[in-house]
Design goal:
Rossmann fold; globular
């Protein structure tokens, strides 16, 4: 169980994706983008728009299984990024690099690609080429697609 939780709003995610896109501009143009599913899909779409990149491929990696969404297992590629071949000229996008295990398997599959993500934890940081913000290893990041708005009654109507 994570010691801390950090909630990323849609607005924050969009700002951070645009910040990453801006930092990636000098490295382009890219032949295409490979989104690491599922977390990298939305950041990849935003970054593709900002970089005016039309070729978007995906690589599907399963690394969280079991009872808890916080229990990481051995990552397995369930759908390769065949259009990217060895990754030359491609940009890999993910939302977060945590332990680095998913990033390692993706980098092995696409060794010539540039790997960028929005957020990086210390254990995963060495496995990415670029990121926007570092978060502590004991923080579980709650992305907008992980949460739902919930009605909260006014304080005056809540029972003591």
């Amino acid at each position: 169980m994570a010691a801390n939780y950090a909630t990323v709003t849609w607005d924050q995610l969009h700002r951070d994706a645009r910040t990453l896109a801006s930092a990636l501009m000098p490295r382009g143009p890219f032949k295409g983008i490979v989104a690491v599913t599922r977390g990298g899909l939305i950041p990849a779409a935003i970054i593709a728009r900002e970089l005016d990149c039309r070729l978007i491929e995906s690589i599907s990696v399963v690394s969280y299984a079991g009872e808890s969404a916080e229990e990481q297992s051995e990552p397995v590629i369930v759908k390769p990024a065949t259009a990217a071949e060895d990754g030359e000229g491609f940009l890999i996008i993910d939302d977060l690099v945590d332990s680095g295990e998913t990033a390692k398997i993706v980098r092995e599959a696409l060794p010539k690609a540039h790997f960028a993500c929005l957020y990086a934890k210390p254990s995963g940081r060495p496995h990415t080429d670029q990121y926007v913000m570092e978060v502590s290893q004991d923080t579980w990041v709650l992305f907008p697609w992980d949460t739902a708005p919930l009605f909260v009654p006014p304080l005056a109507r809540q029972s003591a």
